[in-house]
C-alpha cells in the first residue's frame, strides 16, 4: 500500500516536515509494511522555504539584509543547486512578524531587504527566482526592492527618495541606468493567491494597509502615492500593470515584480507541488493524507489541502485531511476532492495544549484513520 503524506505546517506547533513525520509514525503502527511517502507542503506563505528544502534536499542560506523599518535582520532563503532555483520568502526580510504591533508603520516600511535577497540569489547564479510574498509589513509598491536592485527613484532635486510608500508622492523621475543587468536573464515567479489590483477600494492600501498600521487618512495618502508611482512606471516602462490581478499583493510588491521583472503569478501551492514532485508521487498511490492547522471555508482560497486534493483528484486517489481545527464551512471541501476530515483533539483542551501535544495527537489520529481504513477494506 502506498500512502502520500503531504501536509502543511501546523502554525506555532510543527513544521510541515515534522507534521508529515508524526503522521507517518502513526500510520506505521497499523501499516508497518506500507510505503509511506513524506512530502511536506506549503502554499506560498510561512514555511514555504522549509517545505521545499525538506522535499528537494536543498540548501538553506542566510543573508543580512535591511528589515522593514531599516534595522538589519538575518533572512533565510533556499537554494536548489541542480536547477539553479532560488526560493525567497519576502516575509523573512520584509515581514510583519519582524515588527512589533506598536511599531507597525505602513507609510515608511520598505521592501529593500527583499531586493537584497534577490541580489544574493543573483550572486549565487540563480536562473529562476520564486518569490513567496505573503505576510508583508510593507506598503511601498515594491519600490524599496527595486531600489536595492538598482532602480533610482528621484525627487524634483534629483535626490533619492527615502524608504516607504508615502515618500512616493515626491517621485519626479525614475532611472533604470543602474538596474542590475542580470535580472534580464532570470525567470521570476510570484507564489501568491492575492488577486487585488494596486490601487482603489480593493487595492493594496485599502485592503491590507490597516493591518500594517495605516490610519484611514494614511490609507488614502498611500493609495494616492502608489497611483503616482504607477503613473511614472507606466511612462518609463511603457506598460501599465497596476490593474492586473495580483499587483496589490504584499503592499504592491506584486506590481513592481510584474512591471520591472516581468514576473508571472502562480498559486503558491501549485508552485510548491511542482517543486516537490507531488504529481509524480501521487500517481499510483492508494491514499493521500494532507492537513493544516485550521481547515475551513478559507481553505478553498488556494491553501495546501485544496491544492493537494486537486492533484489527487486528477489521479482518482482519495484524500483525508487531518486538521488542528475543523472550522466553519470545511464541508465545502468535500466537493473539491476531499473524502474525509478529522480534527486533532480527542477531547476538550486549550489551544496551547493542542499545540504542545500536536506530535502525539497526529500519531493517534493517523493510527485511527489507518484502523478505520483497514476495517472498511476488510483487512
Automatic annotation (TrEMBL):
It is an enzyme of class 2 (transferase). One of its GO terms (molecular function) is glycerate kinase activity. SUPFAM superfamilies: Glycerate kinase I. This is Glycerate kinase. InterPro entries: Glyc_kinase_flavodox-like_fold, Glycerate_kinase, Glycerate_kinase_RE-like, Glycerate_kinase_sf. PANTHER family: GLYCERATE KINASE (PTHR21599:SF0). GO terms for biological process: organic acid phosphorylation. Keywords: Kinase, Transferase. It comes from Pseudomonas synxantha. It holds the Pfam family Gly_kinase. Its EC number is 2.7.1.31. Belongs to the glycerate kinase type-1 family. It comes from the Bacteria. The keyword Transferase applies. The keyword Nucleotide-binding does not apply.
